[in-house]
Amino acid sequence: MNLPDTQHGTQHGNPPAVMHMMGDLMIPDERVLRALHNSRLVENLHDFEINVLASLITVRYFEVKEFIVELDDDSLKDALMILVEGEVEVSAMVDKEQVSLHLESPGDLARIISFVGGNMMNISTSIKVKRDSAVLLLQRSKLETLLHSHPSIVYCVMRNLVRYMHGVARRKNAEKEEMSNYFYRMHGRY
Predict the structure, then answer these.
(1) Which residues are within 8 A (CB) of 111 and not within 5 positions of it... i.e. 6 or more apart?
(2) CA Rg, the chain, in Å?
(3) What is the reported pTM?
(4) Which of 68, 91, 123, 124 is the most exposed place for a label (fewest CB within 10 A)?
């Protein structure tokens, strides 16, 4: 899944023609890299830094109607999930509050709370696969191995996660406002 090394200042290289198998489906690395770029985690990283980060990421395939509970799966513990293709529903109980995410577009992220320090909170997660899916998994412990050798990669990934969450919060706030306006017929919109 590595990008070719190019000059230090370039942002994107041509992905190799390597393929990953998912049942009868062939998933080219191009799709994997597109999902990584769509997630915006690699924003402001150079190709060689993306290569370093990509070497830490594993690809995992889920079959339709598969149901995974976090406690039974060590590969998901503290892992950030990035959708490559398919459709996955992630439900979590975070300190007695139900949270659900529907991943359907390449680059959609889930398990952010677990990734950034979920061991400080009581989180139980389940994953329901709606369509055969491929996801990228980045475990926090693997990213932390770069703290001394490549701190700028860790910094950019974490900064990009904060930006992603800020975008989600803004969208959810706008949706809440829209629903409030609809129910209470405020601001003369309805």
Answers:
(1) 76, 79, 80, 81, 90, 92, 118, 125
(2) 18
(3) 0.74
(4) 124
Using one digit for the tens of pLDDT, what is the confidence trace for 45-102? 998 898 889 888 888 888 887 777 665 566 677 889 999 999 998 888 777 788 788 8
Q: Collect all residues with Cβ–Cβ distance below 8 Å to 55 and sequence separation of at least 6.
A: 1, 2
Q: Give me the helices (H) in the chain, please.
A: 29-38, 47-54, 112-117, 140-144, 151-184
Q: How far apart are the first and last CA of the chain?
A: 50
Composition of the chain by helix, strand, coil, percent to 5: 40, 30, 30
24 versus 57: which is more confidently predicted? 57
Token pair recorded at residue 27: 């998933």
Which structural domains are found in the chain, ordered by start? 19-175 (2.60.120.10)
Contact 143, 56 (CB under 8 A): yes
State residue 11's pLDDT score. 38
CA-angle at 121, arms to 119 and 124, nearest 5°: 85
